[in-house]
Amino acid sequence: MANKKMDPVALIRKEIESLEHKVEQLRDRLMADAHKAMDKAKAQTERARKKLKEEQTRLGELQKKAKASMDAKVHKQLDRAHGAVDAAKELELDAKALMIMAKDQITELKGDYQRAKALAKAAQDAAKNFDKTAKPAAKKAPVKKAAVKKAPAKKAPAKAATAKKAPAKKAAAKKAPAKAKAASKTPPAS
């Protein structure tokens, strides 16, 4: 049984199953990475919103102070606050862009997975169809091979005997014990 060759269709099916398993593992890993990236982007967006809110609150307070006393120190603080608000807005925009990219990556991964799954199914269907068409041919093939093998087997000893004398002697030596056995089984003629 160990020397028995596997059916090529079975080998193809086994390879398809192995590839499907690998695709499934890769998809899971990539999906997990994409979800992590999305969670990270969400967290960054939340931090950016919080910072923006803090800076806007601070800016409002400074503007109130500025109205009360317009001195140079307040103007400097006001300028810094405006700069901080702008930086917070940019940070929020960056976080939103990261979230959009993560969503796009998840969509692409889902599409790739669906294509890989469809290809695997098509390969499996092709293997089944091949199996169906190969069975009738497989039944006929052994009959043809047996007929072909018998004809050369009969001709081989005659060629060997004419080509070399030594093989003919060996063939005669092999036939002699068979004749001796046949003679010993037949009753002696008297």
Automatic annotation (TrEMBL):
Composition bias, kind Low complexity: at what positions?
179-190
Task: List each coiled-coil range.
Answer: 9-72
Q: Which UniProt keywords apply?
A: Coiled coil
Organism's domain of life?
A: Bacteria
Instruction: Show the segment(s) annotated as Disordered.
Output: 129-190
Composition bias, kind Basic residues: at what positions? Answer: 137-157, 166-178
Q: What is this protein called?
A: Colicin import membrane protein
